[in-house]
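Issue 218. Parser rejects a valid record. Input:
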Amino acid sequence: MGDTDAGSRAAPRAQSLPPSNQTPVNDAAKPVRSSSGKQGFWSRLGLFSKAADHSAASSPATAPEVRKFGILNLRRMSIEDVYIPKADIVAVPSDIKKDDLVQVFRESGMTRLPVYKGTLDTPLGLIHLKDFALTHGFNGGGGRFNLKAILRPLLFAPPSMPIGVMLTKMQTERTHMALVIDEYGGVDGLVTLEDLVEQVIGEIEDEHDIDEGVFWSAEKPGVYIAQAKTPLQDFEAAIGLKLVDEEDEEEIDTLGGLAFMLAGRVPARGEVIPHDSGAEFTIVDADPRRIKRIRVRLPDGTGQAGSLSSAPTASVVSANPPPVIPPAATSTASQALAKEA
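Output the parser choked on:
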């Protein structure tokens, strides 16, 4: 998912199915047709037509019924079930330098970034990579940099809004991102069009997605990129090197916790932390409150087991796997997304 922070994602809550003799009602979930005569998102997706409902009723095990399972999420789930928490949002301040903005785009893999003044609770808008590239090129050259001149407006939504309503609002406003605002006006999180559509058709993978079941990967022999939440014992077993003493084993569970202990604070991005074994921990991604990703460089002669398959226990099992949707439905939804973009 390339529109938002590459870190952890909020897991949707388990949803119960309504009795078969009841029909959930949601006006925003009806087919929408724009004033220009173009077919609305729901109509193009073909998920709310009478024909689809009739097919599901007449053939219990057919593809339309599987598709209908995902539709229930639109009517029963709210934004708070799927949004990215505030701590995981990748955003930039309004006074960021041009070169620093280029670096954030490159490291995060995002195409849209919220822009704030002072703190994220004072959002100003969003910056789109396309707008920046048209003005300054992908390398940030050419012309005087004025971030505010190329900002796009942000969409705001309460966490209680049904995701079907949010999808329709995004289509109307022609935007792919919204900030989730609490009752006091503070930012709770961020939700993207992709986050919402995935609740209907299942996971949408792109070139920026990282397998959530993999805690670390080998860049080259002896060098690893790892999530801060990597279980320390699993990582030690894979690299064949003990990183904590017995007295600290009860206190430290993750690789990020080890880096925090060694630094005595939350280390900054780019900081290099040495280890007594000769290993080095470079902070790849972090914010003022927590570490996100770490590059581990091992001493020579260690770390022979560096492939992803070498860590069978280092996996995350989703408690709410996405519904299995037939290829035809996925293709139709993808075409709808392409038209909206």
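Fixed in the parser; the record now loads. Confidence is low (pLDDT under 50) at residues 4-63, 305-341.
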